[in-house]
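Handout, section B. The chain below has 164 residues.
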Amino acid sequence: MRRAVIVLGTTAAGLAALLSFKSHSLAASVPPASTPPPSTGSPQAMASGTGPSSTGSAAGQASATTKASAATQAATRTVTGTVANTQYGPMQVRVTLAGTKITEVTVLQRTDDGSESDQIDANAIPKLTSETLAAQSAHIDAVSGASYTSSGYIQSLQSALDQE
């Protein structure tokens, strides 16, 4: 009887700990998108400055948005990460950034230990790239079954992001 109480108590404590575990949220790591202010008149009235808000603030906001957009386009750059040597060969990525946003990740070198490596990379690299674009950082999960590829990818990605 005493063992049953201990087992049930331990099981309940373990279940409570498991249910209280919180995994990382992608939404928390992605910066919010810039949204234009809501307009209070027709597009024609806003453009001509005769709408309800004809104080020029709409034109000023549009001008600021245009300048910010031009600055972002001017800040587009490409950064190459260092080569990460793994047990199955090198991994190296190149990151394209628009401002601080990761827009593209290109794998320049990948593991090259035969056909099995090719199959693993063909499966893992698209997943790693997708996660990188979603997370907008190198804080991504490794792909199951591709530990070395994932490790090398993340290491090279982080070195590229550290250069910005």
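Note. The radius of gyration is 25 Å. Compare this with the example in section A.
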